[in-house]
Amino acid sequence: MLIRPKAGILDPQGEAVERALPALGFAGVENVHVGRLVELDVQDAGQLEAMCEKLLANPLVEDYEIVVEQ
Amino acid sequence: MKFGVLQFPGSCDEVDALQAARRVGDAELIWHGERDLAGADAIIVPGGFSYGDYLRAGAIARFSPAMEAVIEFARDGGLVLGICNGFQVLCEAQLLPGALLGNANRRFTFRQVELEVLYSGGPFTGACALGERLSIPAKHAWGRYYADPPTLAAMDRGGQLVLRYAPGENFNGSLHDIAGVCNERGNVFGMMPHPEHAVDELIGGSADGLKIFQSMRMAVEGARA
Questions:
Q1: Scanning B70, B119, B157, B225, which has the fewest C-beta atoms within 10 Å of its C-beta?
Q2: How confident is the model at residue B121, as a pLDDT?
Q3: Share of chain A above pLDDT 70, in %
């Protein structure tokens, strides 16, 4: 599960990274956001959405994306 | 009256909360694994780093057996005070609207802040005057209060915005300078600064935090009368 800060909410971590990249010589970078990755093995992939809604993400302030690999 | 102070693995301010509560009534620690709230008239969810702030601050604590009991207690109208990590737990448990995000200044900040009392009619600020300034230490990295615009507007209309940082004091970027909010019913309250660290002028120079605990006692005793 990839968990990202919702668009439109201040992301100070993202901003800090965005400011650090030019200092290291990487130009032309915009829109940096820092989120979270949760990896797990599960028997029933149908449970993943409920896991995200209930624990892994805070749906008020975060969006999540579920990626399933067989 | 009796306060119950929850204690999670990683809590660090529960003992100061216990000592602060004992200045106005009886108080006892309640371990996170307990469902029995020990006959408490009011519950305090203390500051610290419950479960290491893993995943998100308060995200795991909200599912503890003690918090299940607190959620029921709150639904029945019991008084619940959440301080700092406790405020985060109450938002994660959806006993309070909104969420606490990383400080806009990107720093863990520990300093005395001036707060303004926006609402003084309820169980948590009844001992304060409207507009009164409280000097209380703030000590956190994840204290930026966020709620979406319709929610904030409803909270404003409903008297749920209880404490705010005085001008110039909002280091964490909380929307509307919010430092403390209550639920619609008014029985659940969360604040990021630490009233339990401001109950004795000998330590830190301000006893303004005691008013929060005194207000709670007034409310409990008033309800009995």
A1: B225
A2: 85
A3: 100
- Collect all residues from A whose CB is shorter than 8 A from any CB in B: 9-10, 12-13, 16, 36, 55-56, 58, 60-61
- Mean pLDDT value across chain A: 95
Query: Cβ distance B84 to B140 under 8 Å?
Result: yes
Which structure tokens are listed for A62? 């975060």
Which residues in chain B are closer than 8 Å to A58, comparing Cβ atoms?
Answer: 56, 59, 92, 99
Q: Answer whether B106 sits within 8 Å of A55, measured CB to CB.
A: no
**Concatenated DSSP letters for A19-40?**
HHHHHTT--S-------EE---
* Domain range for B42: 2-224
Please state the domain count of chain A.
1
CATH of the domain at A27: 3.30.1280.10
For chain B, what's the residue count?
225
ipTM for this prediction: 0.90
In a domain, residue A70? The reply is no
- The predicted-structure confidence for B163-194, as pLDDT tens digits, reads as follows 999 999 999 999 999 999 999 999 999 999 99
CATH code of residue B87: 3.40.50.880
Range of the domain at A51: 2-65
Distance of CA B210 to the CA centre of its chain: 13
Report yes or no on whether pTM surpasses 0.90.
Answer: yes
